Amino acid sequence: MTGLSFFSGLSVVIPTRRDEPPDWVQDIITTSRNEVSEVMVVIERDADPIAMRPSVSGAERVRVLIQPGTTKADALNIGLQSAKNPFVIFLDADVQLEAGQLSIVRKLLDETDFVSVAYGQRAPPFPVISFVSGWFFGAKRSTFIDIGGWAEGYVEDVETARRILQAGHTIRTAPFAVKLRRPVRNPIAKGLATIFPNR
User: Rounded to the nearest 10 degrees, how much is the dihedral formed by the CA atoms of 80, 184, 31, 12?
Assistant: First the structure.
């Protein structure tokens, strides 16, 4: 899959902590370059932007943003607000992105407002309509902004799933799973939110 057919309409937002290896972000940028028209690397406000620069050196269509607040939701929302395209995909820096995955999610966004990507060896064997994956999540930008974007909370993706469902939307699950470079934060809370989205 070349991914070029969706090139002009997709922005990617990568929230990046100052303690994450720069080559993780560089790998994502390199893998995604034929599938997106814009990549925004959002760094923590107290991080050194010069020190973070090597992670995006030589990449085209890359912008570095400094988040104004201190939470992950804040970083994701500054990317959402700054995106220039109608479709936005949010990727954690620890995602091991494979070629073609962004284009699959982008195509699904023609049919739905939100797409979530599971992690692991395979996609869930049954439909899940309440799951937000903070590590790999796609949205129609205007719809997401209209409902308030990423929600603050102890686990921002759980709170965001509630917000999306309460607004009357569903969340489609992608037909593939993504590999991560480290364990998921708060896996029990995220699993319970998938089963009991309105608790």
Answer: 0
Is 47's pLDDT higher than 80? no
First-to-final CA distance of the chain: 40
What is the chain's length?
199
Residue type, 80: L
Nearest alpha carbon to residue 36 among 105, 96, 94, 116: 105
pLDDT of residue 4: 44
Span 103-160, pLDDT tens digits: 999 999 999 999 999 887 666 655 555 678 888 999 999 999 999 999 998 788 889 9
| Predicted TM-score (pTM) of this structure | 0.85
Helices vs strands, H then E, count in the chain: 7, 8
Topology of domain 4-195, CATH: Spore Coat Polysaccharide Biosynthesis Protein SpsA; Chain A (3.90.550)
Domain ranges of the chain: 4-195
- The beta strands (E) that lie in 74-186 are given as 87-91, 95-96, 114-119, 136-140, 172-180
